[in-house]
Amino acid sequence: MPELLTPLWLLALVGIAAYLIGAIPFGIVMARLMGLGDLRKMGSGNIGATNVMRTGNKVAGVLTFLLDAGKGAIVALIAWASLGEDAAQIAALMAFVGHIYPVYLKFFGGKGVATFIGTSLALAWPVGLALCALWLFTFKLTRYSSLSALVVTALSPLLVHVFGFGSMFALFLAFAVMVFYKHEANIRRLLAGTEARFGSGK
């Protein structure tokens, strides 16, 4: 954990603002803008980029990923530039929480992977780049988006130490725990051998 130098009341305000920004459901927004319908009634029902991709609209899927990643990165960078690392970590965490539990959708949100990647790149870019490379490698090897997400989040607490960002260990551990919790159904399907590979049409 970083040293807490920012007043607690200000950290609370940062957290609230970051949560509200992180809760913006860009998957829902992009699906509606591009006439794809209600994303929650399509595919897996998830509001993230992977489910948008499954609609067949790759542009919408890429834009959703960039926006979901960007909202986490932006709030973290602004908080760091304005107040310091303690505020940046709070902002990153709350933007992530906002994405998976958005108040605008009655707390039914995504699984947080894109927002996790965005905040990783903003807070510790060497770690973020390593995670992107690891995700791509795992996905190319297995074609499982869920497994790729689980691998990178599981290894992220170790990687922050390897790259010299030890003060972020607790933050990345929290990310990993929440991503695994949100992927509980995927983990069961992976263990049972019934998880659909990306592009399988299932």
What does this structure look like?
The model has no long low-confidence stretch (mean pLDDT 89). The protein is built from ten helices and no strands. With 202 residues, the protein is mainly alpha-helical. Helix 4 (58-82) packs antiparallel against helix 5 (85-100) and helix 6 runs antiparallel to helix 7.
Brief write-up:
The protein is mainly α.
Topology readout:
Blueprint: H1 8-22, H2 26-33, H3 49-53, H4 58-82, H5 85-100, H6 113-123, H7 125-142, H8 145-162, H9 169-182, H10 184-192
Any descriptors?
single chain, 202 residues, mainly alpha, globular
Which parts are unreliable, with pLDDT below 50 for 5 consecutive residues or more? none
The profile of the biggest β sheet is: none
Terminal CA distance: 42 Å
Count of alpha/pi helices: 10
Using the CA coordinates, give the radius of gyration: 16 Å
- The secondary-structure class comes to mainly alpha
The tally of beta strands, per DSSP, is 0
Average predicted local confidence, pLDDT: 89
Shape from CA axes?
globular
What's the SSE pattern? HHHHHHHHHH
Proportion of residues in helical segments: 55-70%
Number of discrete domains: 1
Strand content: under 5%
